Amino acid sequence: MPPLTCSGLTTCSIAAVIVQMVGVSLFMLGFFPVKPTLSGVSGPESFRPPDHEVYNLTTPLPPPTHLKSLYQELSEIPPSFDRLILMVIDGLPAEFVLGKDGQPPSKALTDAMPYTQSLLKNGMAIGYHAKAAPPTVTMPRLKAMVSGAIGGFLDVAFNFNTQALLDDNLLGQFFSIGWKMVMLGDETWLKLFPGLFTRHDGVSSFYVKDTVQVDQNVSRHLGYELNRDDWDLLILHYLGLDHVGHIGGRNSVLMTPKLMEMDEVVKMIHLNTIVPQDDIKRQTLLVGAILISSLLFGLSFVFTPQTCAYVVVSDHGMTDNGNHGGSSYEETDSLVLFIGPTKYASDYASATHNTAYQVDIAPTLALLFGVPIPKNNVGVLIAEIFTSLTEDKNQIKKPNVIVVFIVQNCLGPNFTTTTISNDQQLRALELNSWQLLRLLEAQLPGLSCRSFNSDGFSDDQGLGISKCSGSMDEMFCCLYRNAKLLHSSWKLKTVSR
Ligand SMILES: *[C@@H]1O[C@H](CO)[C@@H](O)[C@H](O)[C@H]1NC(C)=O
Ligand SMILES: *[C@@H]1O[C@H](CO)[C@@H](O)[C@H](O)[C@H]1NC(C)=O
Ligand SMILES: *[C@@H]1O[C@H](CO)[C@@H](O)[C@H](O)[C@H]1NC(C)=O
């Protein structure tokens, strides 16, 4: 073997360094996949089919109040709610509230949350096991909830050094239609959305040993905020339960009192917003009107006395030891609970056995409140929320005039009726599908559903529905086209009826 010369050694070292760098970059690319996101925000164009880009993206958006009515007009779905309370219980596994594998939660757990359980039993709330994507740590989960997009693992690195969320998201959309927002709780929200909140009280998530003050600092403003009508979105983010987990795990002695505290908050908000206590007389009349209408006219009649939507979510679950971050069932089993003015579910099982994805929150809330779905959303509308607002298909289509008369005379003109018809449900799904198609087309440049020609064989009804086969792309475009055809034929039929 020839002796190693100086230049030979240098060459070897350089080669080794290069090989190492290549290795590291391969690892980084594989482990931290950089997710390409679409820049910009969804605007009025999102209410048009993707193949009709009529809006010039460079034209500035109208001022908030105009934009709000423009969206309402374009979306063709009258908003069911005016205001939203989003309560985040950090680290609460959905299992604690909804049970697991068709079994209700243990007696200790149901006893700890009696009010929430009674809402579920009466069908006044509907819960979902909402699968969260890893990493199951707070910041990326909040981002997923408000943008409907799934971040990469790189977000973990940013979790402690949070920066403003620049991607299209619900809060930005709400802000653009002039919503006033209030945030109480985890200051991560303030870092993600600097300057967006009219009032806020951020608590630091740094002192994990503190399980009392973190939540007291949120609840102390609750009475004040619930009595004010100057906000459209109230975010409450309770960190205590997560801290209890970090200290003593799922079975910590502090867990039951913490669950009870959260249940009290749910009760307070529900009684104050959905069922105003100082309005007992009105409530009685309201119940009377519903009873009369259902007895006399056999209607399942839906109206919302106070148009406040109340959604309880958790950002992630926890393992038995109270840890989180990974992708086990215990960590990804997060909660979404819609607590309504309307009856959402017919029985306990249908209120608790539902599954969804955490990203589905974003499109569902966007469609409920009449703002465009964020651009990078991969979530799908939770259709039951819309269905429960739908009057019974077999009943009379229009709210009965006499009922409206009774309601308005007993309860004042401000009690308006809200009904979401099948058309609007279908419309909501259509808007969701357009947004997803736009995203797919941007991510897969080869996908060309627009140029898809209609030479498929026609079925009996001559709709032009074709059998789908071929590559994944072709299948997808074919299915999309079929859905589009069915949708328009359904619309034609209902119009001509
Ligand atoms: C969009 O509007 C800007 C200014 O209003 C104009 O310069 C541009 O040509 C328009 N683009 C299209 C595609 O119409
Ligand atoms: C709660 O509020 C008090 C008084 O404003 C403050 O001193 C304390 O640091 C807050 N606690 C947390 C956990 O943010
Ligand atoms: C009805 O709503 C209007 C505007 O929101 C308000 O000014 C009025 O006081 C309300 N009336 C009643 C009876 O609550």
From TrEMBL:
Q: Which UniProt keywords apply?
A: Membrane, Transmembrane, Transmembrane helix
Recorded protein name is GPI ethanolamine phosphate transferase 2
Q: Name one GO cellular component term.
A: membrane
Any single GO molecular-function term of the entry would be: mannose-ethanolamine phosphotransferase activity
Species name? Vitis vinifera (Grape)
Task: Please name the GO terms of the biological process aspect recorded for this protein, alphabetically.
Answer: GPI anchor biosynthetic process
- Family annotation (Gene3D superfamilies): Alkaline Phosphatase, subunit A (3.40.720.10)
InterPro entries of this UniProt entry? Answer: Alkaline_phosphatase_core_sf (IPR017850), PIG-G_N (IPR037674), PIGG/GPI7 (IPR039527)
